[in-house]
Structures are given as C-alpha cells and as structure tokens.
UniProtKB/TrEMBL annotation:
<keyword id="KW-0342">GTP-binding</keyword>
<dbReference type="InterPro" id="IPR027417">
    <property type="entry name" value="P-loop_NTPase"/>
</dbReference>
<dbReference type="InterPro" id="IPR022812">
    <property type="entry name" value="Dynamin"/>
</dbReference>
<dbReference type="GO" id="GO:0005874">
    <property type="term" value="C:microtubule"/>
</dbReference>
<dbReference type="Pfam" id="PF01031">
    <property type="entry name" value="Dynamin_M"/>
</dbReference>
<dbReference type="InterPro" id="IPR020850">
    <property type="entry name" value="GED_dom"/>
</dbReference>
<dbReference type="Pfam" id="PF00350">
    <property type="entry name" value="Dynamin_N"/>
</dbReference>
<dbReference type="InterPro" id="IPR030381">
    <property type="entry name" value="G_DYNAMIN_dom"/>
</dbReference>
<keyword id="KW-0505">Motor protein</keyword>
<dbReference type="GO" id="GO:0016020">
    <property type="term" value="C:membrane"/>
</dbReference>
<feature type="region of interest" description="Disordered">
    <location>
        <begin position="74"/>
        <end position="106"/>
    </location>
</feature>
<feature type="domain" description="Dynamin-type G">
    <location>
        <begin position="26"/>
        <end position="322"/>
    </location>
</feature>
<dbReference type="GO" id="GO:0016559">
    <property type="term" value="P:peroxisome fission"/>
</dbReference>
<dbReference type="GO" id="GO:0008017">
    <property type="term" value="F:microtubule binding"/>
</dbReference>
<feature type="region of interest" description="Disordered">
    <location>
        <begin position="540"/>
        <end position="562"/>
    </location>
</feature>
<dbReference type="GO" id="GO:0048312">
    <property type="term" value="P:intracellular distribution of mitochondria"/>
</dbReference>
<keyword id="KW-0547">Nucleotide-binding</keyword>
C-alpha cells in the first residue's frame, strides 16, 4: 500500500511532466528537493541513496538542470532471492561480487524523454544526463529550469522522489551569465517554495552551519523548519576532536525532522574508483567506531537517511493526496470549460460558421432583451431591465420635470389674450389664448423624447458589446467586427424613422388640442376655483355635499366690461385730451401693461389652471406612448430584422473565408487547453485508482 502511494505520485509526476513542472503546473506534488552550496555533496548524497554511481561529476557547476529522480523499488527477478533489505544490510552484499559498475538485469534507469529505452549501464545514464543538460543549456555553464526526469528501478532502493538542483554559487566563472547566482537562487526557490516540497538541506560538516546558504534559503520558505531535513556531509573531514553532536541535538539550528550525518566518497575515492558499496560499508564502520557517534550509529549514515526520507515522503503524500485529487479535478474542470467556450477546432465551411455565429448572436440578443440570458447578473441590471429603467425612471422623470410655468409669465398670457382675440374684442377670449400657450409648451416634450431614443440606442449597443464579449465571438475577430459594424449601422438607420415617428406623435399632440378631453378641467370648474382663490369669503360650502355653492354676492361678470378700464386702458390712460385728439400711431412694440383688472386677473388664472390641467394630460400620454413608439420602431424592429440584415451583409459577402479566419491566440490557447485536459485527465485516472 505504502509503496503504491509513492508509485502513484511517481506516475503523476510523469503524467504532469509535459506541463513543465515548476510553478506553471496546476498541481504541486510532494517531492524532496536537494538544496545546498556548490560542492557541499548534494550529488554524492543522491548517489549514495541510489547505491549507484551515475551522476555527472567535475569541477564547477555540473548540475545545471533540475534532475527529478524517481527511485522505484522493484522486486528482483524470480531467480534472485535478495530483497530490499539488502540496502540496509550492507554486509550481505547484494551483488555478490560487489561490482557496482557492472550491468545488472534487476537495475536500470529510464528517461522520460526517451520512453521505452532501458539503461542498464549507469555510465550511459551519466552520459545521457550530460547530453540532455547540454541540449537545453549549451556548454557554457548556463542553467535551465526545465527538468530532466530519470526513473531508476532497483531492488536496492526505497521508493522515493528526489530533485537534484544546481548548487548555490557566488561568483560567475568562465562565460557564465553575470546573474548566475540569482538565476540559481530563483530556480531553487521555485521548487522549494511550494508547500508540498520537502527540503533536503545539504551542508558540509566542516563548514559553519550558521553560514550555510542552503539552510538560509530553506528558512526563507520554511521559517519554522517544519518541512526541512538537514544532511551533514564530509563528517570525515572534520578536525580531530570536533563533531556534529550539538547540531544533531538541535541546539544550533533546530529542524523538525532533524539532521542526519553522512559520509560520501571523497574526490580521491572517486578517482580511485572506490565503489559506492565499499563507501557505504566504510561509512557504517566510521559511525560505529567513532567515539562521538557510536552510541547512536543507527541514526547516522546514508541507509538511515534513505529510510527517513521514504517515511517522510509517505507521510506527506498521505496528508496531501486528497487535496491533490481535488486540485487535479478543479484544474481539469477549468480547462474543460475553457475548451468548450473556445469551441472545437472546426472543419466547417466558412458559410456554415457565419450562419451559426449569426444564429447564435440573434438568440443571444433576443435572450438578453427578454431577460432570459443564461448569465443573469445579480449585481447589476442588464439588457431588458436597463431599457425598462430608461423608460420608467429616466424618461418619466425627464417628462415630469417639465413645468409650463417656468416659461409662461402672467403678462404673456395677458398679451396673448389680447392678440388671440384679433381685431374684434371677443366676449370670452380665454380658449384661444389657452390653445396658443399650451401648444407652445407641448413642443417641449420633443427634447426629452429624442434624448430617450438616444439612450435606448446606447443600451442596444451596450447589449451588443456584452454579447460579443463571449469568447465564441473572439474566435473570429473579423467576423466579430463585421457583425458589430453591421449591427450598429442597422441601428443608426433605424434611428431615423424612430425619431420621425416620435416627433410626429409630439406634433400631433401640438396640432390638435382636445378641449373635450374627459380629464380636462371644465371652464366653469376652473372659474369657481379661481373665484374661491381670489374671493375666499364669498364662496360658501354646502354643508351637505361639501361642494362650493353659488355665491350670492355679485362676482365680476366676464361679459360686463369695465368701460373706463378697457383692455388697452394702460395705453390710453392719459388725460391729455390734446394727445388723445391727435390720434398718434401706436408705438412699434405694443404691450399689455398696467395693473390688471379683476376680469384680467380672473381670466389669467383660469387659463393657467386649464394649461396646467391639459399639460398634465399630455404628460401622461407622452410618458405612455413614446416608450411604446421606441419599442416598436427601434427595439422590436431590431429584434425582428437583425437576422435578415446580418445574413444580407455577412452571409452573402464574397470574402466569407476571410471573415472566419481564426484568431491565432484562440488556436494557441485551444492547443494548450487540449494538452492540459489530456494530461489532467490522465492524472485524474491515476489518482482515482488509489
Ligand atoms: P555537489 O556540488 O553539492 O553536488 O557536490 P558533489 O557531490 O559533487 O561533491 C563535491 C566534492 O565533495 C566531491 O569531490 C566529493 O567527492 C566531495 N565530497 C562530498 N561528500 C563528501 C564526504 O562526505 N566526504 C568527503 N571526504 N568528500 C566528500
Ligand atoms: Mg551536484
């Protein structure tokens, strides 16, 4: 069971490898990452854990790409009776001859970039690592974050995943880039900052731990030391009489998983081709016989380190697997839905693409107008609801704000009264003056109505923009633009008849004043109201009905003119009989001036009441009918005609194949999504099988 867990992670690692690992991967797998200064012994530790000599060695920076090393414990073939315990029981000598460099049918390596090829010769593995490193980085000691994935099958390893990284260096050598230190640091951080990374911090015991660059970096991302495990190399090179006991006891820099001291082959050992097996035996003897370590020798050395790493990794995987599963599923869903919105790579003919985009657009348009759009927002009004807001809030308020009396002055009413009575003084002049004045005021409804049309036009364009945001339209940028242009052009043309229709409605209101409108105040009612206002005491209220009853006192009669104060009294009030007799011509501008007679006051007030009453009738009519007119001429028209128009303009065009040229970004993104979906689906199967 435990072994399958690690095996699962290994498989996942391979499945997700095409995504380039690193931070771009949606899933962060638990793995052990080796961190330390250059030449601290990182590669040596890894080789000792594997028990084979296979990593490139040399001076300077040798590890220049991340090496993801998956160790797979594999039962030996049937004729071999040895098992994994061999690793921990070295004296038994698993290979009998102890010749580690010899080929062995139970142990081999495989590279992810060379699927199916088994490397039984570990020298060839080393060569392949060198070749692959140079393939991506060149020979000039540059580095690359693209990992090499190597899997080693062996009965002598514990199943484990380790990542070897370039060592921390300070000074660029040769033609290394100037910022090599930063590049390496960034690469290491990319691996160890992920919360699922276990940090294997390698430090040479003969250097000061407090100055360890690897440990410093580990502390940056894991300040508690809760996922860092320390390794102390080169214990054999320590000065006589010194040891690492203080560090092991956690009294220098404590780590939750503690430190393991190890001894690798020195440079001389390597040159003399000392086998790892021999080195491991020497390591064991060293700790067992050293006065400082003999009492705790079984907590020292490479086999103990391997066991410890294996159990830490297992523990970590068990903890994180449910979350990994969830992440894979989430990422899979995300890419699947993006893929769906990008649409499949199409082999359809241009005409059928154009047709289906037009159909989609018309459906989307109608849906939004009807409030049936799939992605209805709860945060803001959209489509039909916004149109309704324009009609019922903005337009209605605009109409209601019109007040005829901010333009009509009492003196104007009087002048118009005179003018409208023409040459012959009429008996009752009110009606005509009222009509003249009210017509002028009704004209004022035109402005807000035209404004309303423009606001609706803007809303329809807004709906267009909203629809075209859907990625299915961005897929064909030219078609999208042509569609947008045709739609707006169509709306512009529809504006003209809409405006005509609306101004006609206002004009018809202007043209004929319906004085018989049932809601219009009656002349007699108006008069009674004015009399009550002017002579309140003379109006008595019928105690039974509560209505005003006819006044008994003589009200100024309209027909009974005050002869001494005639309409033009103001102009001819001069007592100079000579001037009167001279009969001067009227002045160029002749205005009704002077104090108003009772009758004039009365008539003015009556006319004002009637204007008020009629104006509010028109207000109601206009607020009701103009939206209906705009609905008919602009909104419904666009609904009904848009498909036909778009077909005419787009479907018939000779350059349809240009219109449906797919956006390069869409194509690329689709490829990426396809790859992600593929990889994640595979990963999902692997995780689900646990
Ligand atoms: P890396 O750069 O961190 O990968 O370090 P290497 O594993 O390449 O080791 C650097 C040098 O230190 C090599 O010459 C090793 O032989 C030597 N070395 C590593 N570990 C030990 C050790 O425990 N004892 C001794 N004596 N030499 C070691
Ligand atoms: Mg190395």
């Amino acid at each position: 069971m435990d072994e399958t867990l690690i095996a699962t992670i290994n498989k996942l690692q391979d499945a997700l490898a095409p995504l380039g690992g690193g931070s771009s991967s949606p899933v962060d797998l638990p793995q052990i990452t080796v961190v330390g200064s250059q030449s601290s012994g990182k590669s040596s530790v890894l080789e000792n854990i594997v028990g084979r000599d296979f990593l490139p060695r040399g001076t300077g920076i040798v590890t220049r790409r991340p090496l993801i090393l998956q160790l797979v414990n594999r039962r030996p073939s049937k004729d071999s009776k040895k098992d994994t315990k061999d690793l921990l029981n070295l004296e038994s000598g698993s290979n009998g001859n102890g010749g580690q460099s010899e080929d062995n049918e139970d142990e081999w390596g495989e590279f992810l970039h060379l699927p199916g090829k088994k490397f039984f010769n570990f020298d060839e593995i080393r060569q392949e690592i060198v070749n692959e490193t140079e393939a991506k980085t060149g020979k000039n000691a540059g580095i690359s974050p693209v990992p090499i994935n190597l899997r080693i099958y062996s009965p002598h390893v514990l199943t484990l995943t380790l990542v070897d990284l370039p060592g921390l260096t300070k000074v660029p050598v040769g033609d290394q880039p100037k910022d090599i230190e930063k590049q390496i640091k960034d690469m290491i951080l990319k691996f160890i900052s992920k919360p699922n990374a276990i940090i294997l911090s390698v430090n040479a015991a003969n250097t000061d731990l407090a100055n360890s660059d690897g440990l410093k970096l580990a502390r940056e991302v894991d300040p508690e030391g809760s996922r860092t495990i320390g390794v102390l190399t080169k214990v054999d090179l320590m000065d006589q009489g010194t040891d690492v006991i203080e560090i092991l006891a956690g009294r220098v820099i404590p780590l939750r998983y503690g430190y393991v001291p190890v001894i690798n082959r020195g440079q001389k050992d390597i040159e003399q081709k000392k086998t790892i097996r021999a080195a491991l035996l020497d390591e064991k003897k060293f700790f067992e016989n050293h006065p400082s370590y003999s009492s705790k020798a079984h907590y020292c050395g490479t086999p103990y380190l391997a066991k410890k790493l294996n159990s830490i990794l297992l523990h970590h995987i068990k903890q994180t697997l449910p979350e990994i599963k969830l992440r894979i599923e989430t990422a899979l869903k995300k890419y699947q839905s993006e893929l769906a919105s990008l649409g499949p790579e199409t082999m359809d003919s241009p005409s059928s693409i154009v047709l289906s985009i037009i159909t989609d657009f018309c459906n989307d348009y109608n849906g939004i107008l009807d409030g049936e759009a799939k992605e209805l927002s709860s945060l803001e009004l959209s489509g039909g609801a916004r149109i309704s807001f324009v009609f019922h809030e903005i337009y209605k308020n605009g109409v209601n704000a019109l007040d005829p009396f901010d333009q009509i002055k009492d003196s104007d009413i009087r002048t118009i009264m005179y003018n409208s009575s023409g040459a012959a003084p009429s008996l009752f002049v009110g009606t005509q003056a009222f009509e003249v004045l009210v017509k002028q005021q009704i004209h004022r409804f035109e402005d807000p109505s035209i404004r309303c049309i423009n606001l609706i036009f803007d809303e329809l364009v807004r709906i267009l923009t909203q629809i075209l945001q859907n990625p299915k339209y961005s897929r064909y940028p030219q078609l999208k633009e042509a569609l947008s242009n045709s739609f707006i052009e169509f709306l512009r043309q529809a504006l003209i008849p809409t405006q005509e229709f609306v101004t006609d409605i206002i004009q018809s209101e202007e043209t004929y004043i319906n004085t018989a409108h049932p809601d219009l105040l009656k002349g007699s009612q108006a008069m009674a109201m004015v009399q009550e206002k002017l002579h309140p005491k003379q109006v008595q209220v019928d105690p039974k009905t509560g209505k005003p009853i006819a006044s008994h006192s003589p009200a100024p009669s309209i027909t009974e003119d005050d002869k001494s104060q005639g309409f033009f009294g103001g102009f001819f009030s001069s007592k100079n009989k000579k001037r009167l007799a001279a009969m001067e011509a009227p002045p160029p501008v002749l205005k009704a001036v002077g104090a108003m007679s009772d009758r004039e006051t009365m008539e003015t007030e009556v006319i004002k009441l009637l204007i008020q009453s009629y104006f509010s009738i028109v207000k109601r009519t206009v607020a009701d009918i103009i939206p209906k007119a705009i609905m008919l001429k602009l909104i419904i028209k666009s609904r009904n005609d848009i498909q036909k128009i778009l077909l005419e303009k787009l479907y018939s065009s000779s350059d349809m194949s240009d219109l449906v040229k797919e956006n390069e970004l869409t194509k690329q993104r689709r490829q990426e999504c396809l790859k992600m979906v593929d990889v994640l689906r595979h990963a999902n199967e692997i995780v689900s099988s646990v």
